[in-house]
Design brief:
By secondary structure, the protein is of the alpha/beta class. It has a domain of 97 residues: GMP Synthetase, Chain A, domain 3. The radius of gyration is 23 Å and the shape is globular. It contains 13 helices and 21 strands. Helix 10 links the parallel strand 6 and strand 7.
Length: 446
């Protein structure tokens, strides 16, 4: 009954989203070569549209010596210049299409945790929820199922709560504000999801981890969950193990950002991420903006294939990953990327100009999930580095494996960088998100 009501409401009131969902299921069945053909055609059309209707792209492409007619195959795609965040910071309104009015768009502001926040404009008529609905089909979950949500924005007033309940009826939603987590809030949230027989959770990794810590500590049993959807930051192996233990269900990692919500989604039993290439094109490039080979780490560029009001074409997000499989090689015809291990700014800088990449730094505790509860690497402006470690309950502070971790990092830093380590009780979140690497030097370069 709930499922029937859910789909009836969408067919009546969100027919555009319902139509897009049906189209996404048809795309799901296509072979890799056909998926790639459709993806390229969308890329080509978007570039041509942007050149003719967005003032910035016409001047930028002319300046770079690129014209849309040069784009006749995937081999030509590297000729398209990348879009940098600094451009959006200084020329944001020039990226608006002349076919739209700025008052018809909403403003999304990035968190700014890796530098200066920036604003992008979004067309709210684009049914971004479609990718989530299709992911539910992969996971065998009905989108009408009761859900627990751990985000920054949650309804707080009586009116907002009643409006939210009517909007999503018959689905029941439980909320936990990820930026204001207290023990009492966690208790209330757990009570809600148990009472409402919640089927799945969605939220920031760090907020889910906080709830998981409490569940494990209090030995609480939750037996209704089928899946936990993690987003907003890298899902480290030690955190995944913790969530699996606490919630007693499968954990799904999802990669997205304020500018593009669903970029890649983990399928059940797959140790990789599926790129939703009917909605977004993902490039992974080297320092020269040339496409990386398979298994080669590089910068992620995204092209939002459905945003014509405010096109983002080959937009450098600041994250790093690598391709595991290309569309033509994968079983389901979708491109596959590795789990995102960190941002470009998640790096520690050495005095000689070199740096230790976040792709390594976010793995230093991977093999110590039975020892480490959490950690953070912090570099100050004087280049000194401090490793902060939160141990699991009952772990001896003199455990030799702690020395193995600190010694490994110390050896990477060399002798010229001051280094210290400290066992701490907790590591504060950054407005609901956990940051494993913070470098004041890297942030100052943004």
């Amino acid at each position: 009954m709930k499922s029937s009501i859910f789909w009836l409401k969408n067919r009546l009131f969100r027919w555009k989203a319902y139509k897009a969902y049906k189209e996404s299921l048809l795309f799901d069945k296509l072979q890799g070569e056909e998926k790639k053909r459709i993806e390229f055609e969308k890329c080509r059309m978007l570039v041509d549209y942007a050149y003719n209707h967005v003032p910035f792209y016409r001047s930028y492409y002319d300046e770079c010596g690129f014209r849309p007619e040069m784009l006749s195959s995937w081999a030509d795609w590297e000729k398209v210049p990348p879009l940098e965040k600094q451009i959006i910071r200084t020329r944001a309104e020039e990226l608006l299409s002349d076919k739209y009015k700025i008052d018809d768009l909403s403003i999304t502001t990035t968190g700014g945790s890796t530098g200066t926040p920036l604003r992008v404009y979004k067309d709210n008529t684009i049914p971004v929820e479609v990718m989530g609905w299709r992911a539910f089909a992969w996971w065998g979950i009905d989108p009408s199922a009761n859900v627990g949500i751990l985000h920054r924005r949650t309804p707080t007033t009586f009116f907002a709560k009643m409006k939210n309940r009517l909007l999503w009826w018959p689905t029941r939603r439980s909320y936990l504000n990820a930026s204001k987590i207290t023990e009492q809030n966690i208790v209330d949230f757990i009570d809600d999801i148990k009472r409402q027989k919640t089927v799945w959770l969605q939220g920031y990794c760090s907020a889910l981890e906080n709830v998981a810590d409490y569940i494990i500590k209090k030995q609480i049993i939750i037996d209704t969950l089928k899946m936990v959807w993690c987003t907003s930051s890298p899902l480290l192996p030690l955190v995944r193990k913790k969530l699996e233990k606490a919630f007693n269900c499968s954990i799904m990692d999802q990669y997205g950002c304020c500018e593009m919500w669903n970029i890649a989604i983990q399928k059940p039993e797959e140790p990789k991420m599926t790129v939703c290439n009917d909605f977004v094109h993902v490039d992974i490039v080297d320092a020269n903006n040339m496409s990386c080979d398979k298994d080669e780490l590089g910068d992620i560029l995204i092209t939002d294939l459905n945003s014509f009001a405010y096109p983002l074409i080959k937009y450098r997000l600041g994250d790093k990953s690598s391709y595991i499989e290309f569309a033509e090689d994968s079983e389901d015809g979708y491109p596959k990327i590795d789990f995102v291990r960190g941002r470009i700014t998640d790096s520690v800088h050495l005095g000689d100009g070199t740096k230790i990449d976040g792709a390594y730094l976010t793995t230093i505790c991977d093999n110590y999930y039975d020892l480490i509860s959490s950690y953070q690497i912090y570099q100050k402006k004087d280049y000194s580095v401090e490793l902060r470690i939160v141990l699991k309950d009952g772990v001896d502070m003199n455990d030799s494996r702690i020395y193995d971790i600190t010694n490994s990092l110390r050896s990477q830093l060399g002798k010229t960088i001051p280094f210290s380590s400290e066992i701490v009780d907790s590591i504060p979140d950054d407005r609901g998100k956990k940051r494993y690497i913070i470098s004041e030097i890297a942030l100052s370069k943004q």
